Structure formats: C-alpha cells, structure tokens
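Hi support team,

I've been running sequence recovery on a batch of backbones for a student project. Most finish fine, but this one hangs at about 90% for roughly twenty minutes before it completes. I'm not sure whether the input is malformed or the queue is just slow. I've pasted the structure tokens below so you can try to reproduce it. Let me know if you need the job ID as well.

Thanks,
M.K.
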C-alpha cells in the first residue's frame, strides 16, 4: 500500500532559466543554445496555491501509474475528484494514494497487481483528501 506524508508547499519564488528549444529524446540534433524565459516550478505545478500540498510517497502500490516510492506528488484539494482520478484518500485516519473508481460502487484501486482494490463499504471510513495533479521525482 502506498502511503503519503504531507509537506507544505513553497511560499518563495525560485525562477530558473528555461530553454526555448525542446530536448529530443530520440536521435540527437544540433543544440540551439538559446536561453528563453524563466520558469518558476510553483507556477508550473500549482494552479491553486491555497489548496495545494506536496506529499512524499511511501510504498509501491502505484508504480503502474508512474508513481514510485520517494516521489513527491502535488495534491490540489480544490479539484473535485472524478472517476479514474488519482487521489489522496484518508482511510481509517491514514493517508493513501490510489486511483478512484466510481462505477458500480466506489473503489480505491492500486496500480500494482500485487495489491487488491479497497472497496468502500459500510465498515470502511474513507474520504477523498485531494486530487493528484503532478509528480516530482529526482533521478
């Protein structure tokens, strides 16, 4: 099961240089050393600053969605969750990250076949805490 630990978002701005040319992931091409505008990752990753949080992922239940242990996920609490959203949910007072399935009942589905879906029924107390909008990973 993947758990999350909440981290407060940055309040200061850090503008980094942004190259206007794209970097090919296929065959190399001649470099165009043109430095364009700047990029602030807060502006790039966060739509609603007052409702956005970061969380560190623990566990491997979401590897099929490209979310790995140690990744930071960006969570927006102002977005209404919908079917197939990746969400941070609170189940019995613990945070977890899963895919929300809302057809024929409500389930929180892992993205790793080693784990079973969590069916939300009468005995399980669950609430959606926020919707995952981005992943930040160090290489």
């Amino acid at each position: 099961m993947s758990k999350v630990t909440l981290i407060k978002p940055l309040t200061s701005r850090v503008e980094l240089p942004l190259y206007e040319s794209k970097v090919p992931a296929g065959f190399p091409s001649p470099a165009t050393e043109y430095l364009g505008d700047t990029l602030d990752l807060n502006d790039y990753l966060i739509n609603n600053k007052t409702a956005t949080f970061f969380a560190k992922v623990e566990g491997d239940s979401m590897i099929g969605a490209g979310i790995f242990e140690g990744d930071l996920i960006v969570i927006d609490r102002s977005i209404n969750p919908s079917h197939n959203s990746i969400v941070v949910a609170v189940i019995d007072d613990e945070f977890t990250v899963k895919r929300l399935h809302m057809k024929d009942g409500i389930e929180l589905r892992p993205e790793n076949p080693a784990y079973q879906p969590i069916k939300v029924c009468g005995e399980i107390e669950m609430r959606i805490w926020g919707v995952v909008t981005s992943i930040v990973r160090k290489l």
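--
Follow-up from support: It reproduced on our side and the slowdown came from queue contention, not your input. The chain has a mean pLDDT of 82. No action needed from you.
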